Amino acid sequence: MASTGAHKRSRFVAAAAVALLTCALALDPPPALAASAGGTAPGSGAPAAKSGGSSTTKAKAKSPSLHVTSVRITSVNCVPSSNCSANPHQVSVRGTLLIAGPGLKAGMVVGFPKSPGARISSVSPAAHLHQASAGLVVTVPSSAHSGHIMILLGGGRYTSSYGPIYLFKHALHPPAPTTPPVPPPATSAGAVSGTAFEGQGMWIWYLSHSDGGSVAAIAARAHAAGVTTLFIKSSDGSTNYWSQFSAQLVAELHANGLKACGWQYVYGTNPAGEAELGAKAVANGADCLVIDAEAEYEGHYAAAQTYINDLRAKIGPAFPLGLASFPYVYYHSSFPYSVFLAPGAAQYNAPQMYWKDIGQSVDTVYANTYIANRIYGRPIFPLGQTYGGVSATELLRFREEAVDYGSPGVSFWDWQETGSSGWSALASPLAPLISVTPNTTYPELSKGSKGDQVLWMQEHLASATPTQETTGVFGSQTLANIEAFQTAHGIAASGVVEAATWAALLALPPVTVDWTGGGPSG
Q1: CA 307 to CA 321: how far, in whole Å?
Q2: pLDDT value at position 189?
């Protein structure tokens, strides 16, 4: 958690080496490749053309073009299906590709990238086409990598590139047959069940520091620990998209039976740019997106509203969106919970319940988090810690307490800081907790209270009393309106907003506030 100094997600940006490819063919420029996991988006295409020569020299006899268009690849499919995934462009190293297109013949050479996304050249890994019953096939060289492929015709001649083709070091398997999905039932505040938030999740900061970035190793450890969803960092701020969260990575994780969600750290200085990067993670196949907004967004209600509006316009109103922020609302009174968790915003709440960082027990962090957050009406998915020397007993209790509080999912920060005892605790079977009675109370507000909880209360109160101002300050006007509201609903007119008053207020929709400044404390 940022306020403790131990939470480090936003403090560093992964250093990525950028290979700048400046030479490109003037003829038939190939499409850009998808970014590979852990690096920047590489280039693709045919061998780079040599530079040089003056435009003022006399024209010489035109040489035949080295780029041959009469031969080309028009389709590539992984075969046989028993060794392939659902994506025909995914294949294991030493696997087989069925290649078709005009002019193709047995004996022709297929060039593969020698590094992820590399251009094809005379030193690239290559293999010959040969005739099989299904057509022309090629066996993928063991040194090949993901990227575009092409036919090398000899004498420096080549065809247009085709792809990208995604290569995997582990064996692929076809997806298990499924029955037509049944639409998941609706739950509270626009949330639906059956999303990636359910089950047990693990957060990944740097993919390269998590089992070396090996998807096969990550999948094996995840399955052994009962982890079903990975929350992987996808961007930081408004311009820094982390290419470790790529379409290829998502496809690999899906092929290994895991769900993949992106999470972005946001600052509020350029909310439109942050929304753009969030949408990019969704476009790369994310099963859900999580907003990691912390201290930088305190007092920035208008920026939060811009971010949410722009993001929803890009990803649609129903895409699973979560908020992972501070668990104790009253410690961060100017943080715009009421914007990030408003109708049409994030449907899921994953508060950072790092009990050891906060200096409290697992039981206490659950009680205080649920008291503070239940007023926002979003299902809570506790986010716990595996770092910082927490014990296996505490980890197991955190998991068991999530069940007691009725949460359908729990997750942990973070993969690279989880030790062997932590992984064992995540895999341990759960037992009923007879020593815990879940706390079901609500925060109490009275005259003089300030902050987002007051603002949220006022937004609901304004539905019944249109003259109610939304200031985030519990003053004389709010007191009079609350007492009148309580009387009208058969509640003792104490002027204190307690459980019964909250229940009546939350039955009303909140009014819409058009923020133009910092917010109630701005």
Answers
A1: 13
A2: 56
State the residue for tokens 């080295």. 66
pLDDT in tens, 311-340: 999 999 999 999 999 999 999 999 999 999
CA atoms within 13 A on the CB side of 494: 11
* CB burial readout 245-261, b (16+ within 10 A) else e: bbbbbbbbbbbbebbbb
pLDDT for residue 433: 84
The angle subtended at Cα 354 by Cα 352 and Cα 356, nearest 5°, is 170
Q: Tokens standing for 112?
A: 């593969």
* Strand ranges, E, within 13-95: 75-79, 90-92
Distances (CA, A) of 289 to 10, 52, 249, 370: 17, 48, 15, 22
Question: What DSSP character marks residue 67?
Answer: B
Nearest by Cα to 506 from 452, 468, 476, 463: 463
Report the chain's terminal Cα–Cα distance, integer Å: 23
Given a contact cutoff of 8 angstroms between Cβ atoms, the answer to whether 298 and 334 are in contact is yes
- In the three-class reduction of DSSP (H, G, I as helix; E, B as strand; rest coil), residue 219 is classed as helix
The angle at the Cα of 420, spanning 415 to 425, to the nearest 5 degrees, equals 85
Which segments within 317-358 are labelled E, that is strand? 321-323, 348-349
Asked if 261 contacts 272 with a C-beta cutoff of 8 angstroms, the reply is no
Pairing type for strands 240-241 and 383-385 reads unpaired
CB burial of residue 153 (10 Å; 0-12, 13-18, 19+): middle
User: Residue 396 phi/psi, 5° resolution?
Assistant: -65, -40
Residue 369 CA to residue 364 CA, distance in Å, equals: 8
Tally: H helices and E strands in the chain? 12, 19
CA dist 229 to 234, 277, 312, Å? 15, 21, 23
Single out the residue of 460, 456, 449 nearest to residue 485, CA to CA.
Answer: 460
**Which tens digit of pLDDT belongs to each residue from 116-175?**
778 899 899 999 999 999 999 999 999 998 888 999 998 899 999 998 888 777 777 776
Residue with tokens 């949220």: 456
- The pair of structure tokens assigned to 38 is 């852990």
Angle, vertex CA 205, rays to CA 204 and CA 206, nearest 5: 100
CB atoms within 10 A of CB 465: 17
Q: Give the model confidence (pLDDT) of 395-427 as tens digits.
A: 999 999 999 999 999 999 999 999 999 999 999
3-state secondary structure of 369: helix
For tokens 């045919």, name the residue. 46
Residue type, 498: E
In the chain, the amino acid numbered 185 is: P
| Distance from C-alpha of 382 to C-alpha of 200, rounded to nearest angstrom | 10
Amino acid letter, 311: L
